[in-house]
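Last lecture ended with a question: if I hand you only a sequence, what can you say about the shape of the protein? Today we answer it with a concrete record. The protein is Glycerol transport system permease protein. Below, first the input exactly as provided, then the predicted structure, then a couple of comments.
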Amino acid sequence: MAIWMVPVAWLILMSVRPSADILGNFEIIPSRFTFDGYRDFILKDMWYKAYLNSLTYSTLNTIFSVTLALPAAYAFSRFSFTGDKHLFFWLLTNRMAPAAVFLLPFYNMYNAVGLFDKTLGVAIAHMLFNVPLAVWILEGFISGIPRQVDETAAIDGYSLPKFFIKIFLPMIRSGIGVTAFFCFMFSWVELLIARTITSTDAKPISAAMTRTVSSSGTDWTLLSTAGVMTIIPGVLAIWFVRKYIAKGFALGRV
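The predicted structure:
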């Protein structure tokens, strides 16, 4: 844990040092401090808009993926139908494919339908990878709920939609939380597709960080600040679902 924290602590220290000092003498405790990086990150359109773009499409992708995966995972867990195992395996193969395989199809289709350089377009593109992952995780949590719960609710007169919303969803809220966390984080850190299908309006923060070289050179302080800011959503997300992740590991789906 301490070893993992070293580069994070070093990144935070770099974000409050002048750019010239970062490339100068090696210092564990900085001799000079500056918050210019944080000021520039908040005030410059390029940075805070890219940050908001990433938050927007990651949140949309999480909502879309979990909403679509819930009924699919329930169906795979509770019903048997022709080709169900083959279909489940096919869903997982989409998650295993390299993102580079889909760059050209997405670029071509998005230019044709007007989704290029849209945050909605990035959210939809990431569903190709996150929906199979969400189905895989949720199916494990749903299978942990006894079928007798479904049967008892049916005897009590609950329709399937009413039972699913009022009884079943609260019972698997830990699984939904873990699934939402992984969908959000995979979308947040993904660079290749997000960079290919955006240019200016929907450019993500990860792409902005690769374009920091100017005529005056690289602003290492600002780049380090952007790195610190990109860690914050992940820290907040894992804080809220930390007690549920252990259950996911116990079920073998995380």
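Comments.
1. The radius of gyration is 22 Å.
2. Residues 212 and 218 are 6 Å apart (CA to CA).
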